């Protein structure tokens, strides 16, 4: 790190991204060049000496709520969604290790041939050894989203902030894709997010972050260098806090 590079604001962070972020321009599945681009963003932050946890959604492969809406039993549909997150985690692990970043996938549902089971102290040790840790299979429970899983793991790992990578550069009062007059918030409180239904994360995740005073930083994953820039205090983003 050169002397001109600002020191990162956080030592340990959680990066939450959706499964759809891995699709690229496809309508389904994984787009390897997109996975590699996001992995390069993660590496750029890892190179700054930041310890990184990740949670990746599964919506590019299977979404439990959609399966449930189509008549599938909700618990079964949610477990299928959890398995989709394991596939995404393995893809991201492969991309990161291709860039020379040691990575561990840790699943809330044990599958020893594929990845490690979740043991908190072991996960913390991986972070201390400068490995990226990807938490897969959500919380291991149906009815909880990967947003809630990310907030839960961020608290368990003592992360200093949760970074939510999205398609837009922050939190808006309405969908900026559909409304040209949408206004972006610089800062917004947890309670405002809940009261105004701003859609940052689901209500369970926001409440869990609020109760543990865990800031959520919403930024655009499509902005090259955005993740590292925000850690250095640059770029455009919204902070959700108390």
Description:
With 242 residues, this protein is an alpha/beta fold. It has helices at residues 32-46, 64-69, 74-98, 120-128, 146-156, 190-195, 203-211, 226-231; strands at residues 12-17, 51-56, 103-107, 116-117, 132-136, 161-166, 171-172, 184-185, 187-189, 216-220, 238-241. It has one domain (12-241): Carbamate kinase, CATH 3.40.1160.10. The protein contains 8 helices and 11 strands. Helix 5 packs parallel to helix 7 (203-211). The chain is globular.
CATH architecture: 3-Layer(aba) Sandwich
Distance between the termini: 32 Å
Structural class: alpha/beta
Whole-number total of structural domains: 1
CATH class assignment: Alpha Beta
Low-confidence stretches: none
CATH topology heading: Carbamate kinase
- What is the CATH homologous superfamily assignment? Acetylglutamate kinase-like
Helix content: 25-40%
Instruction: Please state how the strands of the largest beta sheet are arranged side by side.
Output: 4-3-5-2-1-6-10-11-9
Counted by DSSP, the helix tally is 8
Query: Would you report the number of β strands?
Result: 11
Instruction: Provide the succession of SSEs.
Output: EHEHHEEHEHEEEEHHEHE
Q: What is the global morphology? A: globular
Radius of gyration: 17 Å
Largest sheet: 9 strands, mixed
- What's the pLDDT, averaged over the residues? 94
Percent of residues in β-strands: 15-25%
Please render the helix and strand layout as text:
Elements: E1 12-17, H1 32-46, E2 51-56, H2 64-69, H3 74-98, E3 103-107, E4 116-117, H4 120-128, E5 132-136, H5 146-156, E6 161-166, E7 171-172, E8 184-185, E9 187-189, H6 190-195, H7 203-211, E10 216-220, H8 226-231, E11 238-241
Parallel strand pairs: 1-2, 1-6, 2-5, 3-4, 3-5, 6-10, 9-11
Antiparallel strand pairs: 7-8, 10-11
Helix pairs in contact: 1-3, 5-7
């Amino acid at each position: 790190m050169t002397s001109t590079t600002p020191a990162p604001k956080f030592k340990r962070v959680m990066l939450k991204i959706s499964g759809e972020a891995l699709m690229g321009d496809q309508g389904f599945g994984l787009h390897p060049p997109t996975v590699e681009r996001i992995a390069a963003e993660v590496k750029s932050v890892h190179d700054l000496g930041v310890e990184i946890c990740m949670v990746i959604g599964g919506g590019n492969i299977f979404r439990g709520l959609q399966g449930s809406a189509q008549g599938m039993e909700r618990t079964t549909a949610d477990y299928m969604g959890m398995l989709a997150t394991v596939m995404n985690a393995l893809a991201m692990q492969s991309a990161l290790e291709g860039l020379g970043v040691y990575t561990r996938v840790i699943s809330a549902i044990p599958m020893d041939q594929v990845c490690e089971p979740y043991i908190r102290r072991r996960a913390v040790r991986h972070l201390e050894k400068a490995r990226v840790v990807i938490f897969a299979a959500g919380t291991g429970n149906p009815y909880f989203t990967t947003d809630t899983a990310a907030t839960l793991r961020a608290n368990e790992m003592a992360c200093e902030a949760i970074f939510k990578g999205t398609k837009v550069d922050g939190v808006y009062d309405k969908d900026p894709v559909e409304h040209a007059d949408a206004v972006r918030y610089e800062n917004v409180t947890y309670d405002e997010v809940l009261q105004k239904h701003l859609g940052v994360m689901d209500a369970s995740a926001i409440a869990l972050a609020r109760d543990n005073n865990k800031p959520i930083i919403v930024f655009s994953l499509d902005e090259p260098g955005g993740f590292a820039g925000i850690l250095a205090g640059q770029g455009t983003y919204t902070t959700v806090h108390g």
